Amino acid sequence: MRGSDTHETDPTDNDRTGPEPPVAAVRTEDLWKIYEQEPAPVEAVRDLSLEVRAGDFVAMAGPSGSGKTTLLNLLGGLTAPTRGRVWVAGRDLTSLSGRELARLRLEHIGFVFQAYNLLPVLSALENAEFTLLLRGLPAAERRERVRALFREIGLDGLEDRRPGRLSGGQQQRVAVARAVVGEPALVLADEPTANLDSATGDALLGVMERLNHERGVTFIFSTHDPRVMERAHRLVHLVDGRIESDVRPSGRGSTA
Amino acid sequence: MARLRILARLSLRNTLRQARRSALTASAMVVGLALLTMARAIGDGAHEQWISDGVRLGLGHVTVEAPGFASTGSLDDRLDSARVAAAERAVAGLRASVPMVASAVDLTVSGLASSPGSSLPVQVEGVDPGAEAAFSKLDDRRVEGRYLEPSDRLAAYVGAGLADRLGLELGSRLVLTAQGASGGVAEQLVRVRGLFRTGIPDIDDGVVQIPIATARRWLGTPGAATSVAVLLRSSQETGRALEVLRARLGEGGGGAGVAVLSWRQVSPELESAVRIDDFGFYAFMVVLFAIVALAVLNAVLMSVLNRRREFGVLEALGLTRGETGAVVFGEGVLLAGLSGVLGVALGLATTWLLWRHGLDLSALYGQGISLSGAVIDPVIVPIFRPTRVVEAAGFVVVIGILASLYPTRVATRIDVAEALKFDR
Question: Which is the CATH superfamily of the domain at A21-247?
Answer without folding.
Answer: P-loop containing nucleotide triphosphate hydrolases (3.40.50.300)
